[in-house]
Amino acid sequence: MLLAARAAARPAFRTLSQAHSVRYASGKSLSETIAEIVPERQELAKKIRTEYGQKSLGEIKVENVMGGMRGLKVMIWDPSVLDANEGIRFWGKSIPECQKVLPAAKDGEEMLPESMLWFLMTGKVPSREQTDDLIADLAERSTIPAYAEKIIDSFPKTLHPMTQFVSAVAALNHDSKFAKAYSAGMKKSEYWKTTLEDSLDLIAKSFTVAARIYNNVYLDGASKIPALDKSRDLSWNFANQIGFGDKKGFIEIIRLYNALHTDHEGGNVSAHTTHLVGSALSDPYLSYSAALAGLAGPLHGLANQEALKFVLSIKDAIGGDATHDQVKEQLWKILNSGRVVPGYGHAVLRKPDPRFDALRDFGNRNKDVAEDPVFQLVDKLFKVAPGVLTEHGKTKNPFPNVDAASGSLLYHYGLTQFEFYTVTFGTSRAIGALSALVHDRIIGLPIERPKSVSMESIVQMFK
Ligand code: CMX
Questions:
Q1: How far apart are CA 158 and CA 209, in angstroms?
Q2: Number of continuous H segments (helices) and E segments (strands) in the chain
Q3: 88: helix, coil or strand?
Q4: Do residues 213 and 158 make contact, with C-beta atoms less than 8 angstroms apart?
Q5: How many other β-carbons are positioned within 10 Å of the β-carbon of residue 219?
Q6: pLDDT computed for residue 2 by the predictor
Q7: pLDDT tens for each residue of 206-229
Q8: What mean pLDDT is predicted for residues 173-201?
Q9: Residue 346 among the catalytic residues
Q10: pLDDT tens digits for 84-130?
């Protein structure tokens, strides 16, 4: 193993964590690095509770309650903050800034989900060596137990891959370190440690689970899956296990895709679900399994499959070289039939999504993608749809979100099974949502329990 070779070269070398055997040649492990920031995070939480506890974050109007709680600031979420105009920032860094500083794979250029994971968990940009150590740590955790393999292999091929993913992730809680320690009487101050261990296990295993589902549903079944190469990163192994190991472009887009989709502050359905279910002290597997069920909704993660379906339907109807007017006509058809244009609009953003920009930029940087008629149609839609949606006059944000581009890139490299796209979103979102869950437990947030009102009570209050 690479790590072992590096360890031999560097004698001063520490143990990662009590619960896991991989060692970090670079010095402090992820767990030890998080432990260093725990006192300051707890101090900050204490200050906020005592000094600002009575300050108002805004007024709650009936329209917020009737309108999906849009705009209400009701949750702490430290790893990322979403600005309506600027888009997402991870611990204060924009996507282009992250792309500059977060280490890529040795054989690639795109920022790695592993380096994003380290960053989201700690707020500190990992060094090359720390990233390599985390890659090796996750590789050690990525094998799934035989009972889980059996469960996955028993699913009918016709069961939607997201339903399989939800079920498999929930079943992995059989080995939850958090649940075991909790029932053995773990102290509250220790919660974050086993939450971290479960989260790293889950993140690593989710890629292996996803690859197994893909093999069962679209290829020749699990017996043909190549063995994991534990010297490689999660995206490389995932690509290799689903038959794309020889496609460098695919491996790179999977790395970028997974790094970009990790986190989008706390209010979106999958992040909020992880936070809500986790607040009941359900273990990370149960919390994230619930989140995946939300990600499977067409207004959230499933939009990436819908967006590509829409692009391909335009291509089928009028060809890849459709004119702007023809694209407009297709857009009006979908709007006039009462449907939404998938991949457009956002509950918070009011400008094009910088995640869309990053994916579009990837396409434009890679000649074979830039010349693909499907990608060119995505680009055409980007030029035409905002005008049509503005004229339509309903959506508050006529610009593309990340889902407008992501499917076309996967499709370009030959991942043509749309129903699988949200699974790839799911391997990524685990990284952000579980980083935030670790932080929830560092600062000891209580069970989430807002107050509901009935429509009758609103009428009574204000009549
Ligand atoms: N096409 C047509 N109409 C749209 C629209 C779109 N892309 N986006 C919003 N609208 C409509 C809404 O349906 C709503 O209509 P009604 O008043 O008839 O219900 C109206 O415009 C106002 O909606 P909004 O306030 O602008 O948007 P919301 O915050 O309610 O919803 C979102 C946000 C993303 C669910 C919505 O824009 C949408 O359905 N987009 C298409 C699906 C999509 O791309 N989802 C992925 C989002 C990213 C992610 O979470 O992964």
A1: 17
A2: 22, 4
A3: strand
A4: no
A5: 14
A6: 43
A7: 999 999 999 999 999 999 999 999
A8: 98
A9: yes
A10: 999 999 999 999 999 999 999 999 999 999 999 999 999 999 999 99
Whether residue 265 has its Cβ less than 6 Å from ligand 1: no
| Dist. CA 53 → ligand 1 center (Å) | 34
Give the DSSP H/E element, type plus range, for residue 410. helix 403-412
For residue 292, give the 3-state DSSP assignment: helix
Instruction: For residue 20, indicate whether it is catalytic.
Output: no
pLDDT reading at 11 higher than 60: no
With contact defined as beta carbons under 8 Å apart, do 284 and 202 qualify?
yes
User: Is residue 134 exposed (0-12), middle (13-18) or buried (19+ Cβ within 10 Å)?
Assistant: buried
Angstrom distances, CA of residue 45 to CA of 81, 147, 432: 17, 41, 20
Mean pLDDT of 295-308: 91
∠ CA 134-138-142 to the nearest 5 degrees? 170
User: Could you give the 3-state DSSP secondary structure of residue 115?
Assistant: helix
- Asked whether residue 315 carries a pLDDT value surpassing 50, the answer given is yes
CB under 8 Å to 316, separation ≥6 — which residues? none
Tokens of 334: 């979908």
CA–centroid distance, 353 to ligand 1, in Å, is: 14
- Ramachandran angles phi, psi of 450, nearest 5°: -70, 170
Could you tell me the domains of the chain?
30-44+67-299+418-448 (1.10.580.10), 302-413 (1.10.230.10)
Comparing CA positions, the residue from 281, 345, 264 lying closest to residue 77 is: 264
Query: For residue 457, how far is the Cα from the chain centroid?
Result: 38
Q: From residue 197, how far is each of 68, 204, 235, 280 by CA, in Å?
A: 34, 11, 20, 18
Nearest atom (ligand 1) to Cα of 394: 21
What is the C-alpha separation between 462 and 60, in angstroms, rounded?
14
Assess whether the C-beta atom of 401 lies below 6 angstroms from ligand 1: yes
The preferred substitution site among 299, 384, 428 for testing ligand 1, maximizing ligand atoms within 8 Å of CB, is 299
Range in 314-323, 348-357, 416-425 with the lowest mean pLDDT: 314-323
The beta-carbon contacts of 318-326 under 8 Å, at least 24 apart in sequence, are: 320/373, 320/374, 320/376, 320/377, 321/373, 322/377, 322/380, 324/380, 324/383, 324/384
Ligand 1 and 341: CB distance under 6 A: yes
pLDDT tens readout for residues 84-94: 999 999 999 99
- Token pair 């007024």 in the structure block, residue: 59
